Amino acid sequence: AGLGGSRLLGPVRSTGELLASQVPLPEPFRVPLPVPRVLQPVRREGDADRYEIVQREATAEILPGLSTPIWGYDGTFPGPTVESRSGRTTSVHHRNELPVPTVVHLHGGRTPPDADGYATDLVLPVGAAGNIHNGPSKHMYMHDPDAVVTMGARDYVYPLRQRAATLWYHDHRMDFTGPAVYRGLAGFHLVRDEVEDALPLPHGDRELPLMICDRSFAEDGSFRYPSIDNTLRTVPGVDESYVEGVMGDVILVNGAPWPVAEVPATRHRLRVLNASNARRYELALDPPPPGGKAFTQIGSDQGLLAAPRTHESVPVAPAERFDLVVDFGRYPVGTEVTLVNRLGSGPTERVMRFLVARRAEDDSAIPALLSEIEPLERAQATVTREFAFRGGLMGDRHGWLIDGQPFSPTRIDARPRLGDVEIWRFVADLHHPIHLHLVNFQVLSRGGHAPGPHGIGLKDTVDLNPGEAVEVIARFDGYRGRYMFHCHNLEHEDMGMMGNFETM
Ligand code: C2O
Ligand code: CU
Question: What does the domain layout of the chain look like in residue ranges?
Answer without folding.
Answer: 30-195, 204-358, 378-503
